[in-house]
Amino acid sequence: MIDPEILQRLSATLAERKNASADSSYVASLYAKGTDAICKKVAEEAAETIMAAKDGELRHIVYEVTDLWFHSLILLAQFGLSADDVLAEFRRREGISGIDEKAARGKK
């Protein structure tokens, strides 16, 4: 089960780091490098997640998905969004067929 509180705490920390000096933390240094660097990191973590899945090592999959979520949260914060926005979207989609939801997005 997803613990929204830990995601909210992490989102708050990541938002705070946006205003921090680039040499004060890894996250602050990513923000200083800009959106392209953050996107590159998300892509890297997605690739590592895929490789871990292909290897079938369960613990490694969890580690890589954690890194992917972490960097995805940094990307959200870059645009003033947070885990709450994603959780709200999950709530909106709950009970909707994936086929129907995807078709509805195409109509917008």
Layout: helices, strands, pairs:
Blueprint: H1 4-17, H2 26-33, H3 35-55, H4 58-78, H5 83-93, H6 98-106
Helix pairs in contact: 1-4, 3-4
Specify the overall morphology: globular
Structural class of the secondary elements?
A: mainly alpha
Major sheet details: none
Q: What is the terminal separation in angstroms?
A: 31 Å
Note down, in words, how this protein is organized.
With 108 residues, the protein is mainly α. The chain has one domain (4-106): Helix Hairpins, CATH 1.10.287. The protein has 6 helices and no strands. It starts with a helix and ends with a helix.
What's the quick description here?
With 108 residues, this protein is mostly helical.
Q: What are the key terms here?
A:
mainly alpha; Helix Hairpins; 6 helices; 78% helix; globular; single chain; 108 residues
